[in-house]
Amino acid sequence: MAGLFTLAQLVLVRPTLGLGWDEIVYVSQVTSHHPAAFFSAPRSRGVSLLVAPVASWSDSTALLRIYLAVLSGLALHLALRCWRGLFPTRVLVTGGAFFATLWITLFYGPQAMPNYWVAAGALITVGCFLRHRDGGGAPGALWGGFAGTALMAWMRPTDAVYVTVPLVVLALVTRRRRALPALVAGVAAGVVPWVIEAYAWHGGLSARLAEASRIQGGLGWHIAVGDQLRSLGGRALCRPCTGEMPALVVTLWWFALPLLAVLALVVAVRRGRTLPTVVPLVCAATVAFPYLFMIGYAAPRFLQPAYALLALPVADALWHLVRAPGGGRRRNVVTAAVALAVAGHLAVQLAVLIAAVDRNHDSRRDWARTAARLHDLGVRPPCLITGYQAIPIGYYTGCSSGATAGHNENTTVAEILRTADSIPVAHLTGPGATPPGYARPWPAGPIGELTARVAPRWSRG
């Protein structure tokens, strides 16, 4: 199943897909072929470490995609193995297949993004925690719990905390505390470097937390359930999240998840193995809560850890439906209904995935075309791009990127003008926007819907 997951990524998403905005930020930190993009306060270095074995010496996007696809398939295989003995093999395969065939999982598996790896880490952590309890404290499970927690914390420290809090509480309540050092050490592996970086570059931990909250629109009570539903139609980022809801057939599986989770809980209680079902359900709820109720925008990838943890109990519920005792005719009807629902679900996920891939291929080709036109206008490395979509277009052009305001503020007008004395500088203005004062006198030219203004000393007209 994990091998088919890797193959599906390579066939459906395709290694030729260019790097996206967030990927550029992470990859540029470790590559020598492009200047490093601004690394904002909420981000963590885990993805940069993950891609470093390839990105540090090669600028081939296709090679990076293949590497990540293979690695993501291996991670899924290892994560499911951590649950051997807790659920039957058929449940593990079905749950893994459910998670792997979500368009969100297929789309982000070969991308340099953190959320899939948090999901894999969550499966490893919770599975090893439960195996440690059942196995009388086997040290291998403790090491697996540490590895899974550290993987989550390297990628997104806050997600690691939300997943592990229920495990810590359970260990304290039941007085089985040998797992606590592994969990705490794993979280610390990702949190401590993030805290050190906060004091080194962000003015302290409280300043970094405040800046991270500001960039994310101010963390607090925000009901983002509707935003998440809108994003299920294939939107990578829903900010601001406006427009119509996707068709019901696209979101129906989302509404079915909590119902199947309740059924899974009922089945687990009847079979006397409540804990392997309750724990992943609770961890899924805690890691999903901030993205559903504490943030003012949505991206479908945010809930990947929750989907991964829900997958196994949901698969157990589905197997219960098709194997429940009863007359042959009733069982045949239920089995046919489940098979039909699964087939419809797969068809919808495939359709959304293909549309999302095509849309992202087009947008990233636009960035490449803009970069080629900037080269024609005299903007060649070393150089600086400011203004509209400066980070992705700067990367594709081979330039640094700069912003004097907003979430990616990293320079000033005076620094931009000084830079223009020594290297080419261009400002990009989006449709209907007004250029800043320093760029208005510069020679301007259209690039599609954008307007490029190049510092006079470097402009080729």
Automatic annotation (TrEMBL):
Taxonomic lineage is: Bacteria, Bacillati, Actinomycetota, Actinomycetes, Kitasatosporales
Q: Which organism is it from?
A: Streptomyces thermospinosisporus
Key words of the record: Membrane, Transmembrane, Transmembrane helix
Please report the name of this protein according to its UniProt entry.
Integral membrane protein
User: Which parts of the chain span the membrane according to its record?
Assistant: 62-80, 87-108, 160-175, 182-201, 252-269, 278-299, 334-357
